[in-house]
C-alpha cells in the first residue's frame, strides 16, 4: 500500500512524501520477507520436509523491483526538479477505497398499490385448490373417482435390426437392406 501511495504522491509532484512512503514500503517488505522465511522454517519442522516458499511468490518478486524503481525515480526527480525535503513522519494511508468503486445506493421498498389487499393475497392461496394423491396407495378396482381402472400399457414387440457385416459404401452412411 505504501508503494502505491508513493506512486500516487509522485504523480501529484510531492516527491519528498513519496520518498518517505517508499522507504516505509521497503521497511514493511523486509519485515514480511523475514516473516515468510520464519513461517517456512517453522512449517517445515512441524510437517517434515520443505515448506511453502511464500517469499518467492510472484507478488514478492514483482513488488521488490517496483518499490526500488519507483524510489529511484523519486530520488532522481527530487534531486533535479523538486528539491523537496523528506519528512520524518510517513504520510497517512487512506484506507477508505474511493477510486473505481461505485457509491452504494440506499434501497427502499416501493409502496404497495392500493389494489393489493389482504383479500387479493388470499385469493392466491394455491394450497386450497391442490389435492395430494399418495402414489404409494393402490387404487381400488373401480378407482377413486368411480372410473374404470387404467389398463397397463401393452408391450410392443420390436423387429430385430439386421446389420451387414461390411461397412456401407454409399455417401450417406446408411445401410442398404
From TrEMBL:
Residues 135-151, 159-168 have a biased composition (Basic and acidic residues). Gene3D superfamilies: alix/aip1 like domains (1.25.40.280). Residues 135-177 are annotated as: Disordered. This is BROX protein. It comes from Medioppia subpectinata.
Amino acid at each position: 500500500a505504501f508503494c502505491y501511495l508513493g506512486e500516487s504522491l509522485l504523480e501529484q509532484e510531492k516527491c519528498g512524501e513519496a520518498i518517505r512512503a517508499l522507504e516505509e514500503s521497503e521497511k514493511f517488505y523486509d519485515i514480511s520477507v523475514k516473516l515468510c522465511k520464519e513461517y517456512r522454517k517453522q512449517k517445515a519442522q512441524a510437517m517434515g520436509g520443505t515448506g511453502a516458499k511464500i517469499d518467492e511468490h510472484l507478488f514478492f518478486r514483482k513488488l521488490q523491483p517496483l518499490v526500488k524503481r519507483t524510489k529511484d525515480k523519486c530520488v532522481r526527480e527530487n534531486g533535479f526538479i523538486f528539491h523537496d525535503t523528506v519528512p520524518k513522519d510517513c504520510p497517512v494511508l487512506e484506507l477508505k477505497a474511493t477510486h473505481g468503486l461505485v457509491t452504494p445506493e440506499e434501497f427502499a421498498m416501493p409502496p404497495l398499490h392500493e389494489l393489493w389487499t389482504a383479500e387479493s393475497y388470499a385469493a392466491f392461496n394455491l394450497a386450497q385448490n391442490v389435492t395430494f394423491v399418495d402414489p404409494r396407495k393402490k387404487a381400488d378396482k373401480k378407482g377413486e373417482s368411480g372410473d374404470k381402472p387404467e389398463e397397463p400399457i401393452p408391450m410392443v414387440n420390436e423387429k430385430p435390426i439386421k446389420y451387414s457385416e461390411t461397412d456401407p459404401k454409399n455417401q450417406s452412411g446408411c445401410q442398404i437392406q
